[in-house]
Each structure stands twice: as C-alpha cells, then as structure tokens.
C-alpha cells in the first residue's frame, strides 16, 4: 500500500509530536510513524515515571526539615508505585492517539525507515530496538521527512555485564517492586536521580562513578549531591572503575568487581542498573539509503535540516531531525524546542502561507523562530535529585574553553531570608557567570530544594542578554529564595 502526505515524521515521542503539530498548524498534511508508544521514552520510561517516583521523597524530606512537622516515616511503596502507574497509564497511549486525531495528524503504527529521498517504508514493529521485518507499507512525502527516533540506553562492553541481564532506565522506571539492594553504574543524571529515588523507596543503594557526579554541571553541584546522597544512606563511590560483572544464577544476586587488581573489591546487590549514557536510535532507520551512516547522530544545522543530505532540485532541504537523535540535546524540553523550529521551518518552506524569506532572514538574526540558536549556549537542564541541580548555559570551565571572558560569583542559599524561613536546614548554592566585556549573564547554576523552579529567571536573563544594570531593577519579593539574585548582583559590585 502507498500513501502520500506533505510531511512524514518518524518517531512520535514528545519531540516528533511537537514537530508534527507545528507543521500541521502550518496547513500541511502530516503522518507520524510510531513503533512503540505515542509519547515516547519520556512519557512511559523516563521523565514522567522518574519525577513521579521522586516527588514523595522530596515531600517527606521537606516535612522532616520543617520545624514542628515531625518525621512522616517510610514511604508507602505500593502507593508511590500506583501513582507512577496512573501517570504513565501503564503503557496505554490511547489518550495521545486521540490527541493526534483531534489535531488532524495521521498515526501509522510500525517501524519506519527511509527508503531514499522523501520515501518512508513502514514494517510491523516487534519492539523499538529489535530488527523489524514484514509486509511493507510505503509512505511518500510531498515536502519533508522528519526523523525524531530518540535514543536508547548504552550498555558498555564490560565483561559479564550483558549476560547479567542488567536494568537500564526502562526497567528502573517501570519496576513493579523495589529490590532490597541496587548497584548503579554511572554517576550522571540517570544515576543520581535513580540513587535518590531507590534510596527513598527503601533499597540499599551503591552508586559507582568513574569520576565525580554530574560531570556536565559545575563541580560544586556534583559534590553537594554526593554529600546529600551519602546523608541519605547511599554508598557513593567516586573515581571507581567497574571491572567485571557476574550473576551466577539468573534472577539471583549480581556482583560487580571494582577497583584495580591490587585492591579489587566486590559489590553485591539484588539488581544492577546501567546508567552510562544514551546513543541515538539511527541504526535501523534507513540512513544508508540517503548517504548517511547508520548508528551516528543526525547532524543538523540551526534550522534543524540534516547536514550532508543533498537539497532537492529547487534547493530546499527535505530531511530534518530533532531531539535526542541529533545528539545536540538530551532533554525533552530542549528537544521540543528544536521540534517547534522544525515544524515552523517546514511550514514556512512548504505551507501555502509559508514565509520563505523569513527563513533566509533568520540566518543573520540572533533570535528567530526558524533557528534553534539556544542549542548553543542557552540550553537548560534540571536534575531532580535532592538537592535539585539546575543550570542554563555553559559551566565556567566550558565558557573559558570557548574563550569567553567570564567571572563567576556564587552565594550560599542558606544565607537568604527566604530559605531560612522555610527551614533551618535549607541549604544550596547559586552561581552566575557574567561576560565581563558585555556585562550580561551567560550562565547560571542553582543547587537546592526546588532549584529547578528557580532556573527560568536566569534563562530569561541569559536569552534576553539583560544588562546587569537592568537586572538590578528586577526586584525579587521578600522573603523568597529568589532574593539570592540581589546578593549575587551585590557580589558583582552593584
Ligand atoms: C530515566 C530518564 C529520565 C529522564 N528525565 C527527564 C526529565 O525529567 N526531563 C527532561 O527534559 N528529560 C528527561 N529525560 C530525557 C528525555 O526522556 C529525552 O530527552 C526525550 O524522551 C527525547 O525525546 P525524543 O522524542 O527525541 O525521543 P524519545 O522519547 O526516545 O521518542 C522517540 C520515539 O520514536 C520511536 N521510534 C524510534 N525508532 C523508530 C522507528 N524506526 N520507527 C518508528 N518509531 C520509532 C520510539 O518508539 C519513541 O516513541 C530523561 C531520560 C531518562 C532516560
Ligand atoms: N532530569 C533530566 O533532565 C534527565 C534525567 C535523566 C536523564 N536525562 C537525560 O538522559 C540522558 C542519559 O543520562 P545518563 O545519566 O545515562 O547519561 P550521562 O551522560 O548523564 O551520564 C553517564 C555516566 O556514565 C558514566 N559512564 C559512561 N560510560 C561508562 C562506563 N563504560 N563505565 C562506567 N561509567 C561510565 C559517565 O562517566 C557518566 O557519569 C542524558 O542526556 C540526560 O540529560 C535527563
């Protein structure tokens, strides 16, 4: 069977859905191809279940720190897992399917792969990372194809690891019971969030990191999270190399040998979680049929058009990519931002009311809806560990490596009245990075309770390139933790 649409989107995760929506709003007919569940990793095995599982522990911690409330005691694990199931719909994506229908987007279920320019073949899917085969359904795109197939967890080539049947973030976010003990390999975002929530749920957790924690953030952030995890009873081992994994009996305990030959140690746990990064899902999407390398991230320009793919005969790009698959972003919000650009660019290039000149003008503009410029220097990330770590823009080291003339100033949140009135234990730290030639903020990091909610003011200042003299007139209410902005500006000499 063969069908034709203006735009075909492969992958209906949060990013593909947004690209499809924006293109459809531009008057184009759109089909999305989904191999598994509409809503993608984020809705069922990532953001939504993990943040739902983390929330009760945060509430308990806040109660413990509030004078006069008392210790609420252990969490009701069954109730926490039940709430997680409610939030993920236990893998029922009919709500998302209804939404697609309501905005006039066609859903084609199956595994999609490119079969040359503007052509997508769809075969029945068995699982998103399995080789898919079967009767082929052919979709033709009059205008553009968007690849938004996301990413999958990496399992490193460590002796015995694959055979030990480890958890990845999928099993960790979907678990039906809490193991008595869990060893986590990797000290990145998944590692610290999972260590936090499994400790909350009563597991004995060991976290193995080959360096410090949260290497993408300011070093003080990882240090504060490590200290808090240790306070919560997690065995945090930094600078530790895992050598070998063994699980002699299927379903039995798993052992990880860590350290060097002279001082090897064995860590034993009921389950092992691998949290060592993700790879783009491009291994089986037909990249070879358009001259690209399967398995590699899809390199895009700022309009999200895939580089290294020829334009069509009239010079228009036809292949776009956004989200995790590009390797340029690794969060839902930054992927959806790219997707809005993708959808708007495709609509402007091919839609009936399209404004092609605007795309040309965008190439010279600092900010335009047709260019994902925030990818460079204004990305945000929030890590929902306890304390939260949230940042925008580069770290101080990254800024210096990029040759920016920066000054970093920081302030202890505990010294702000708004923190002290919440709790005598309210800790945390804020740091801003200032470009000393332009006197504007280029980055900021907040560590503390609910710090993720504090980030957006900094993001507005960075993207808006608000001069420090103007920021001085943005007055935070008293007594809030946001008053730290005043203290930071005072540190900067205002
Ligand atoms: C444990 C965990 C927690 C996270 N928490 C957060 C968080 O709190 N906040 C945040 O911003 N980010 C978080 N992330 C990151 C976030 O999940 C990803 O950035 C986001 O899901 C990327 O969206 P995407 O649409 O690009 O990819 P995905 O969500 O992976 O969606 C891709 C879709 O494409 C489909 N697909 C793949 N190949 C094909 C094919 N060939 N044919 C058809 N369909 C295909 C897949 O089935 C999937 O539905 C977390 C990640 C993890 C692992
Ligand atoms: N709150 C959020 O926004 C959120 C939450 C979870 C995940 N995510 C996203 O999901 C993606 C994956 O997260 P992640 O934590 O898996 O990746 P990561 O890149 O953040 O961390 C990977 C960790 O694994 C370690 N590592 C890598 N290879 C290793 C090996 N062979 N042996 C031992 N350690 C090894 C790294 O040193 C690092 O500490 C990221 O893009 C992240 O942004 C986002």
UniProtKB/TrEMBL annotation:
- Any Pfam family hit: Pyr_redox_dim
InterPro entries for this protein:
Class-I_Pyr_Nuc-Dis_Oxidored, FAD/NAD-bd_sf, FAD/NAD-binding_dom, FAD/NAD-linked_Rdtase_dimer_sf, Pyr_nuc-diS_OxRdtase, Pyr_nucl-diS_OxRdtase_dimer
GO terms (molecular function) for this protein are: oxidoreductase activity
Q: Which UniProt keywords apply?
A: FAD, Flavoprotein, NAD, Oxidoreductase
Q: Which SUPFAM superfamilies match?
A: FAD/NAD(P)-binding domain, FAD/NAD-linked reductases, dimerisation (C-terminal) domain
Organism domain of life: Bacteria
> Carries keyword NAD?
yes
Q: Which cofactor does it need?
A: FAD
Q: Which residues form a coiled coil?
A: none
Q: Which residues form the FAD/NAD(P)-binding domain?
A: 5-338
Give the EC number(s) under which this enzyme is classified.
1.-.-.-
Residues forming the Pyridine nucleotide-disulphide oxidoreductase dimerisation domain are: 382-485
Instruction: Indicate the family of this protein.
Output: Belongs to the class-I pyridine nucleotide-disulfide oxidoreductase family.
Against PANTHER family, the record matches this protein to:
DIHYDROLIPOYL DEHYDROGENASE, MITOCHONDRIAL, DISULFIDE OXIDOREDUCTASE
- Protein name as annotated: NAD(P)/FAD-dependent oxidoreductase
Where does this protein come from, organism-wise? Isoptericola haloaureus
